[in-house]
Design brief:
- The protein is about 55% helix and about 10% strand.
- The chain is globular and about 25 Å long.
- The chain is mainly alpha-helical.
- The longest helix is centred in the first third of the chain and has 14 residues.
């Protein structure tokens, strides 16, 4: 899976994927061979964190 590099675009892309296709961030990263730590760090630097209960990245 080719994911956006820009943090805002990445957050939007991931939230859409989480809403439409995956029950958790863990499922999304495992299914697409992504680095969860790298994603969370990049989005954390932009002021976002993953909310497990909402299954999305939020401020």
């Amino acid at each position: 899976m080719n994911i956006p590099n820009d943090p805002i675009m990445l957050m939007s892309f991931l939230n859409t994927q989480l809403r439409d296709n995956y029950s958790s961030l863990e499922d999304l990263v495992k299914s697409n061979s992504l680095d969860q730590k790298e994603i969370e760090e990049k989005l954390s630097n932009a002021g976002y964190h993953y909310d497990v209960e909402r299954n999305q990245f939020v401020r």
